[in-house]
Design a protein that fits this description.
alpha+beta; two-stranded antiparallel ribbon; 12 strands
């Protein structure tokens, strides 16, 4: 069974838009119907029932269309399917925890608060910008500027070939895995949905989960803070990520061309949105060589990757 839902929050009422998929579809439908029957403050709308379990794109497409028509609202996206090493798994307790975090008052995004436009339980900038569980609360004014999920999936397919060609030419490298030939890391096929919400250059993420859960208390203190603020990546996404990050940063030639740092993100921003983040964006301070890359894109635009990487390719050929 699989359940996806998006909610639109107002002061007195909430609208729950959901879809169902998988073998347990009828049981899940009964569960949601019972919930909606018990809560008069929730308006429930079944968007569809699917035999295919991988339907994230359908739900996100509905969320995108809603935001395009309701730009002053906030939406929440929930799913009961997590991803570990790119494989879909069901973990009831972890799913409940992430859901509680995303639905908490700490993740509510007030219109007048500009410190954050997407909130989740935990945000990570590597291997790509995303929230744990791919669950989040977001302002529609941010969501409406994303590529539609269907268009984004097609764009990721196009971009993947360019990335692999750039890796072959040594314009891009990675020290976090053997190579970049991975649908999960490239965000192609069904994995494009994991990359979608964090893909825009205007992303200002925040998260609410504590850095460490208390050992002897069932009460967890949530606090919404600017992200990223955790380990470099989830262990299930990149094993031993902090050590690999340290190794990559120690070599200028690898660091500057690292796909999971600014070089790769600049490629993605230009491919999807034809621009990079503004000068005041958090990305330039978070990733290494931010000032250099800001200067490079201001001079060379989308050709910055080729121009900057050339000197390191020449040096490697000499060696």
């Amino acid at each position: 069974e699989r359940l996806h839902g998006t909610t639109e929050a107002t002061q007195k009422m909430a609208s729950l838009h959901y879809s169902l998929s998988g073998d347990g579809e009828s049981l899940a439908a009964k569960t949601v119907e019972d919930f909606c029957g018990r809560h008069s403050s929730v308006r429930c709308h079944l968007l569809g029932a699917f035999s295919d379990e991988r339907i994230d794109g359908n739900m996100l497409e509905s969320l995108f269309k809603y935001c395009d028509a309701n730009r002053d609202r906030e939406v929440v996206y929930l799913s009961n399917q997590l991803s570990v090493h790119g494989a879909d798994v069901f973990e009831a307790n972890r799913t409940k925890t992430i859901t509680a975090h995303v639905l908490s008052k700490d993740c509510r995004l007030a219109q007048q608060d500009t410190s954050c436009n997407v909130c989740g339980s935990e945000f990570y900038a590597l291997p790509f910008m995303s929230f744990v569980g791919n669950m989040f609360a977001a302002r529609c004014e941010y969501v409406k500027n994303l590529s539609s999920p269907r268009a984004f999936m097609a764009e990721r397919r196009e971009a993947a070939g360019d990335v692999l060609m750039d890796e072959l030419k040594k314009h891009l490298v990675t020290g976090f895995r053997k190579n970049l030939d991975s649908p999960y890391f490239l965000g192609i096929h069904q994995y494009s949905t994991r990359h979608w919400i964090g893909s825009h250059p205007d992303l200002v993420p925040c998260d609410v989960a504590p850095l460490q859960a208390p050992e002897h208390s069932s009460q967890i203190e949530l606090a919404r803070l600017q992200a990223p603020r955790r380990n470099i990546a989830l262990h299930e996404d990149i094993e031993d990520a902090n050590r690999k990050d340290s190794d990559v940063r120690s070599s200028e030639a690898r660091r500057v061309r690292e796909y999971m740092y600014l070089a790769g993100n600049i490629c993605k921003w230009y491919h999807h949105y034809s621009r990079v983040p503004g000068d005041s964006s958090w990305v330039w301070a978070y990733f290494p060589d931010g000032d250099m890359w800001k200067s490079a894109v201001s001079i060379f635009g989308k050709n910055a990757i080729t121009k900057v990487s050339q000197q390191y390719i020449v040096e490697e050929r000499r060696d």
